[in-house]
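TEACHING EXERCISE
Course module: macromolecular assemblies
Task: Read the component lines below, then compare them to the predicted structure of the full complex.
Student: A.B.
Group: 4
Components provided:
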Amino acid sequence: VLVGTRNPLNMGAAARAMSNFGFHDLRVVRPYEVAFREARSAVGAAALLRSAEEHKTLAEAVADCTLVVGTTAIGRRQLKQPVKRLEAGAKHIRKKLQSSRVAILFGSEKVGLSNTDLSHCNFLIHVPTRKEHLSMNLGQSVAVCLYELSRSALPEAIAGKPEAIKAGDLERVTQLVLEAATASGYVNDRSRPAIEQRVRRLLRRMRVPAEDTGLVLGILRQILWKLNQ
Amino acid sequence: VLVGTRNPLNMGAAARAMSNFGFHDLRVVRPYEVAFREARSAVGAAALLRSAEEHKTLAEAVADCTLVVGTTAIGRRQLKQPVKRLEAGAKHIRKKLQSSRVAILFGSEKVGLSNTDLSHCNFLIHVPTRKEHLSMNLGQSVAVCLYELSRSALPEAIAGKPEAIKAGDLERVTQLVLEAATASGYVNDRSRPAIEQRVRRLLRRMRVPAEDTGLVLGILRQILWKLNQ
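Instructor-supplied answer key:
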């Protein structure tokens, strides 16, 4: 998932790396329109770019995924999510890919992913680079991540882990919690953005099992209904 | 060692990847002069490009190295050198680098390395790509190769796992959720024991981070207070 990409060459490069390493499902969120149009000529990746889905919001773009992973150069930012080195993160992602969809997010060239973007993530991956020059070119970062993901590694056994909730359902839970927190007076207009990010991150770390989605939504809806009476 | 590179963006991208992964000694052989001049503006890699050595022949460029490795997309060419997959090749290269200099050659965008270029190589490395789309972008290929070379066996987690909530706090959360579910009418006396068990199990699987205990308890208490008004 490319979020807010500006440069058509980078978009094309990302698509080419996907094609090289056998990944097909490109999604773009809030792309710079000109970039998106111009990128469609990327060497060997035209078909992939033609079938790329465009989304208005990140929440919509990752709704059908059970794992959402952000990429970060770390830098001076205080990160609120767990950060794994690419190799460790890729192991986790490969395991998950056997049974469900995983979104890997790449931010814009200038600023990367915003804190709100990051709050959608279960964890972040970081390509270990030299501390004097942390920030990679976008197309190269995509290539390195997909190389590591496709690098042969036999599947590890998955013994009876519960199926994870989809990001779309999790966002529904997030919004219901926030509505209940607002209706009860815990949150006001001023505090809402900060609390929203914290709640979203918290819920992503909590790993709600898919089978309990109904229970969680049911309780929250009932509470909200009662609060609004 | 970049051999016959045409596109300044690729030359800049190669230099940037070198800088990211801690490689300093760029050599160029028969570059397209304009490309070489224009590349010098690459983000964060200007110094590296300024100090790049230019050589008329490949032989001269690799003269001080004890191991010369070519990169290849394989394709339809009959190769006369041993070809290793990147991972295996990188292991060999890392070992050699402890005691001497190793040259890694990248050919031009259109045709890669010529048979004459290849004849200078001890072996070739190949980034495993999809057979329908073998050929990588030059800058991305450099990035992937240098990533694999610099990948080390350091501990995996960077910003480790968040500290988990204590069982006592978790039970407090459990009870508050049940009280809220009861006050809202989701649970009644008959259904309570079964729901209580499900909620307790669910919360244990969800791994609430310790640092968020206050947030969770705060939201729940406020909701409960409002429900009971």
